[in-house]
Amino acid sequence: MTDEVTAKPSSAPTSVGAALRKPTRAVAVRWGDNVVQVGGGAPVVVQSMTNTDTAEAIATAIQVRQLAQAGSELVRITVNTPEAAREVIEIRNQLDRMNVSVPLVGDFHFNGHKLLTEYPDCAQALSKYRINPGNMGGGKRRDDNFARMIDVACRNDRPVRIGVNWGSLDQELLARMMDNNNQRAQPWDAGAVMRDALVVSAISNAQRAEELGLPGDAIVLSCKVSQVQDLITVYTDLSARCDYPLHLGLTEAGMGSKGIVASTAALSVLLQQGIGDTIRISLTPEPGGDRTREVIVAQEILQTMGLRAFTPMVVACPGCGRTSSTFFQELADSIQSFLRDQMPVWKNQCAGVENMHVAVMGCVVNGPGESRHADIGISLPGTGEVPAAPVYIDGKRTVTLKGDTIASEFQQIVQDYVQERYGTGQSAPSSSDAN
Ligand code: SF4
Q1: What is the DSSP code string of 234-278?
Q2: Quick one: DSSP state of residue 324?
Q3: Which of 334, 338, 328, 343 lies closest to 295, judged by CA?
Q4: Is the per-residue pLDDT at 431 higher than 50?
Q5: Which of 64, 80, 187, 415 has a CA-to-CA distance to 349 between 20 and 30 Å?
Q6: Alpha-carbon distance 271 to 355, whole Å?
Q7: What is the pLDDT of residue 71?
Q8: Ligand 1 pocket residue status of 190, Cβ below 6 Å
Q9: pLDDT value at position 9?
């Protein structure tokens, strides 16, 4: 049996929290008065991407608004055809009319050099361009196309993301690096060469963009792959070899829980090391699913890691044989939805509310304890317990709710608490957003 002495740590306790953010250049992405800083110590930016046909301006503007209202700070749209490029200005105008100032990022492949030069209104309506150097042809043609896109970015004072993807990695570069690898005394395996080629492609294209006149603080990099371990290795290497801000994302993450788990596993390891300045969760939407899911998942990753706060979090127990009722699950779900729905209003009127913790617990085993640790908590009765639900506010037991109106009464108590504690506009103490 372990005694008290051997159970003590042999050195000072490990501190809690992510590593300090890796210093990167600050890139400003602007639309009107809205300036979103990526890198340079700014909070990790949440971004998302539409899946509407960009040529359908109204549908795209509506989805951009939904993503922005869910909390996406940048929204990327595909610009793949002349029809899409023509409609970008209309999408921007629609958003401006709706007072949605989220910056739009144009996603370009294959013909971006033509679309950006032939549709100058499109180039101006976009706040940032995503360039994939692996999808611009080969040899001199690729160099010329890349130079044309960088020229548009310079003339419009727009930042770019140089986004390399292993599905479209520059094949000439990869072939060269494979040949060089064969000259090594102990050649690397093909996967290691491919990962290195991704990093080399991103950094060398960024350097070329700078040689062409794009400021170094107008470049964001990404190297997306679809396997968790590859992503962690590639970004750890990329971060060590440059100080451009990094856009993190696991490409083709997948659907449902698989996509969420894979993205969370990969991104949280990197974020914990202080790597990453903006994130996007590439979830495959379930049929009929809501596109804003990817925004909520991104926010929840950052918030549960303590890196940012977006909306009050509900702590709920998983339930077990001590409660046969689903009431506490329904209450936890309805309170979380209520809190999220209120945030657009509270954000401007109740500073600091996003740091609030609410506990909804299923029985007396952990209910009172967890409720006391939350800002506001309720402990529901388990099977065989007295049918009463004590409410705790700031660690102290206050009222006890009973009967059929527990849910509505508790929601009102939460609402009153928010107004009383945060309604003055005073921000509650928080370490969130500081790193
Ligand atoms: S709080 Fe009660 S109901 Fe919830 S998991 Fe713990 S023992 Fe089970």
Answers
A1: HHHHHHHH--S-BEE--TT-EEHHHHHHHHHHHHHHHHHTT--SE
A2: -
A3: 343
A4: no
A5: 64
A6: 20
A7: 94
A8: no
A9: 62
